[in-house]
Amino acid sequence: MEVLEGKRYVHSHCYREDEILMLLRVAKEFGFKVRTFQHVLEGYKVADELAANGVGASTFSDWWAYKVEAYDAIPYNAALMTRRGVVVSINSDSAEEATHLNQEAAKSMKYGGLSHEEALKLVTLNPALQLGIDKRVGTIDIGKDADLAIYNHDPLSAYAVVQKTLIDGRVYFDRQRDIAGRAEIEKEKKALTEKLKAAEKKPEEKKPEEKKPPEKKPEEKAKPPAPTPTPTAAEAHVGGAR
Known about the structure:
With about 240 residues, this protein is an alpha/beta fold. It is built from eight helices and seven strands.
């Protein structure tokens, strides 16, 4: 219901052009809007349809042919969709690659010839637009959240290293402070390791065995007296004859 009322954004996972066009038709039929297609590896094939419907695309930089759905993926995807008027961002399923999406965005300058500003938007303003939070983040402007990453080189350079990370204006990471504290951390780590090794070598102290109270045997019940045997008919006759 929230989707139909426009209260909840639709971010749909897809790969192929037929999947993309199918959901666009469903959205048109039921009167809701798709906000962004995720992965959208064949988005370049239907870029005009995406732009006409005002749908964003969040894709990989250069992953292709790693499974059947990705056979037609190309590294020019982001640039081609951008040229057709689609709001494009770069993402990744890899926890490691997600730490340097700035470099992934830079690949669109090689594969497709995007400008420096267009490539930078792939990991700044454009994803903010797709998520509907561009009034708070995505650019450095007065009144926006001070969520910043400060590099020592051009952010799109392979040589760029983060120097500081700020969230809401507070420094959460400072490279110089981090480097200065590494010796102390290493010292603490070594001390803890030695302590652990010493604990493993120390023989375990045997605890005195607790004396258990003797188990009480259940009292034997007195056996009932054996029944007196009943004389047989022959015995009774013999006894009577006497």
